[in-house]
Amino acid sequence: MNEHTIKKTLSKLNIGGLRYFDSIGSTNDEALAWAADGAKDLSIVIADEQTQGRGRLNRKWFTPKGTALAFSLILRPSSTLRPHLSRTVGLAALSIAESFSKLGLAPLIKWPNDILLNNKKTAGILIETVWSGEDVDSLVIGMGINVYKASIPPADVLQFPATSLEDELAKEPPAREEILFSILEKFIQWRERMGTNEFITAWEETLAFRGQQVQIHAGGEAPITGELLGLESDGSLHLRDIHDKSIIVRFGDVSLRPAA
Ligand code: ADP
Fold this sequence. Notes:
Distance between the termini: 42 Å
Radius of gyration: 18 Å
Number of helices: 6
Mean pLDDT: 95
Order of helices and strands: HEHEEHEEEEHHHEEEEE
CATH topology of the largest domain: BirA Bifunctional Protein, domain 2
Structural class: alpha+beta
CATH class of the largest domain: Alpha Beta
Bound molecules: adenosine-5'-diphosphate
Strand order of the largest sheet: 1-2-3-7-6-5-4
Low-confidence stretches: none
Number of domains: 2
Shape: globular
CATH superfamily of the largest domain: Bira Bifunctional Protein, Domain 2
């Protein structure tokens, strides 16, 4: 993977711009700076290695050299999409999931921001916002996909099991440029329909643990346990607790786990 092969593979898509790095701290940091500096919609920062890749709450995201697909997409929301911005994490998750399905795999979304294969984390999403006063100027969507086995962090740093496309396909995965193309193609298609019920249905049908008991951990609070029912129209998660009470979980730094 290099700048030339990426540009060639993406030439049929209408992307805003591309910055490629052999090694970088975090693609999201570079994209946030570029967005604040006027990057066009659908501009991409991509790196072969991240030395300071981030998850949520300053957790680390591992991207060893040559093993993963790590990129950040800059979005400048149009006025028609602005009312639906809370669905953006679903847009990213569904695009990654559908690109995995095209490879013959069976991905599920661990709400809100991880994609599982075989119940193991294969990709993660980190969304950050550039504000202009009280308005959203742009969004940066960081995506990290474990392509080769060597992208998987050591087990002792994992809070949730992890896998890679190479492990799950049990053969050589497609070139990273091809995987990127496939994700972006889905992303561009779904973004047009992001405000529709069809979008929420597709997202909901891809959720992991539907109909099962899950636990939601948020900061130091006691975890919430309930049956995972589905999504609200803003992308919040709908659970039902043992007293038959509805619980709506909004985004934020919450972590979902199957209940023991
Ligand atoms: P979660 O969604 O599980 O709460 P985050 O979105 O914050 O987690 O992602 C960061 C966490 O993901 C890290 O603490 C680490 O356990 C795990 N992790 C880091 N790099 C990878 C990777 N390449 N593949 C799978 N899991 C990873």
